[in-house]
């Protein structure tokens, strides 16, 4: 910040500026993967990162597994099909659930959640209400609100497949989850004998929701920042900061035919 000559910041202003420059206490990455009718999720929690490149960060915990579509499974979050979107939503929800049950982060810690899916982030913050993933999105939203009640948490977009070390890392873990591997210490995943799918669970070539934005990535290149520190009043049709609006255009009403 450039100060005008002779102007001195008051002590409280200086503390505020210092707090803004202080790196977060933890950074978390999530990703989802779907291929050939199977979907998986993954997350990684780091310390010592800057929430930008996180090159010098250290891994403290991780989790991965298949998307659960069976309501009888303890880890069920509301997904009904194996799709790209349910994978991305589940990845965020599994991360938030793990953070809420973990004692590693002290109360009031400062964290940044990073995902390459703007669709999933919009659902998490209540900016969009999906049609076919409603239960999963509502559970994710509830977990986000509970986490923000205990910690100072923001989210920051990371471009998918852009060379970010930790985005690539969770991408690989999500692929393992898609193949049926499980790597979670959560109590919900303790019993490996419970089926994760219902017999009729399948994939949807369209992504499982009309509000899809592809595989979560918004294109290659440099990471872009998408922070939101006051999402309580976000409506379901609020556009994202890069101009993308998760809401679909309304279709014209069908013409009525007289008998």
TrEMBL record:
Concerning Pfam families, the annotation shows:
RNase_H
InterPro entries found in the cross-reference section = RNaseH-like_sf (IPR012337), RNaseH_domain (IPR002156), RNaseH_sf (IPR036397)
Q: Which PROSITE patterns match?
A: RNASE_H_1
The Gene Ontology terms for molecular function here are: nucleic acid binding; RNA-DNA hybrid ribonuclease activity
Q: Which residues form a coiled coil?
A: none
Q: Domain RNase H type-1, which positions?
A: 22-179
Region Disordered, annotated ranges: 1-23, 177-259
Instruction: Write down the superkingdom of origin.
Output: Eukaryota
Kindly provide the name given to this protein in its UniProt entry.
Answer: RNase H type-1 domain-containing protein
